[in-house]
Write a structure and sequence with these properties.
- This protein is α+β, with helices and mostly antiparallel strands.
- The chain has a domain at about 125-210: 2-Layer Sandwich (Alpha-Beta Plaits), CATH 3.30.70.
- It has 5 helices and 5 strands, in the order H-H-E-H-H-E-E-H-E-E.
- It has helices at about 20-70, 90-100, 135-150, 150-155, 185-195, and strands spanning about 125-135, 160-165, 170-180, 200-205, 210.
- It has a 5-stranded antiparallel sheet.
- Helix 1 (about 20-70) packs antiparallel against helix 5 (about 185-195).
């Protein structure tokens, strides 16, 4: 009886599935676009509230100006009485008669609400590619140096950051490279990296700068 031998060096390799990778990238871009639309909607709501508050302040300023213009002109101050004995202090009634209204009071500083301020323009969103996670900064640094050295033509202009993402109820450190101007550009970069068996998916470019030197 013969026993079939097995070659020790042979190992089955899973072929690269381009269609599955494209489906994953499409789903990631769609999710990222939805996040961008939600953020833009929140920014639009904030700008609308700021416009309403600015308009209300401007109306109050115009009403105050109209009231000041309609007020009667201030009466001219009467001259100081000449018939006063030398060294005698004037009577309180005389002082009140010749003192203009509001004299002796220091002007109040203007309220910050009297000056309408335009809302600041929101910062444009930036995108990147998520290249995997790690337990520490040291692990992420080593991962970035390895990937950047293997693919300098794709990542030479990229800057790595460490982003914190919530996964399965706990925080996880992620290595994100960027910035890019659109999620489509991030998807194209991932399409070029995935055939090299690298973890890559489009992501928002935000987090702490990763020092690699």
């Amino acid at each position: 009886m013969q026993v079939a031998g097995r070659s020790s060096g042979a190992s089955a390799t899973k072929p690269y599935d381009a269609e599955a990778a494209n489906r994953q990238l499409t789903a990631a871009v769609r999710a990222l676009t939805e996040d961008r639309d939600k953020i833009n909607a929140r920014l639009a709501a904030v700008e609308h509230n700021m416009d309403d508050m600015t308009g209300s302040i401007r109306s109050e300023i115009e009403a105050a100006k109209s009231s000041a213009a309609a007020a009667p002109a201030q009466q001219p101050a009467q001259p100081w009485p000449a018939a006063q004995p030398a060294g005698a202090a004037p009577a309180p009634a005389t002082i009140a008669a010749i003192t203009p209204p509001g004299a002796g009071t220091s002007p109040q500083p203007p309220s910050p609400l009297t000056e309408a301020t335009a809302p600041a323009a929101p910062a444009p969103l930036e995108y990147g590619v998520d290249l995997g996670g790690g337990a520490t900064m040291t692990v992420l640094k080593a991962r970035w140096l390895s990937i950047a050295a293997a693919h300098p033509e794709l990542l030479a202009s990229m800057t790595p950051v460490v982003a914190v993402r919530e996964r399965a109820g706990h925080a996880e450190l992620r290595l994100v490279a960027g910035p890019m101007t659109s999620p489509e550009a991030a998807a194209q970069l991932c399409a070029a990296l995935i055939p090299f068996k690298l973890v890559c998916r489009p992501s928002l470019y935000d987090g702490q700068h990763l020092a690699v030197r």
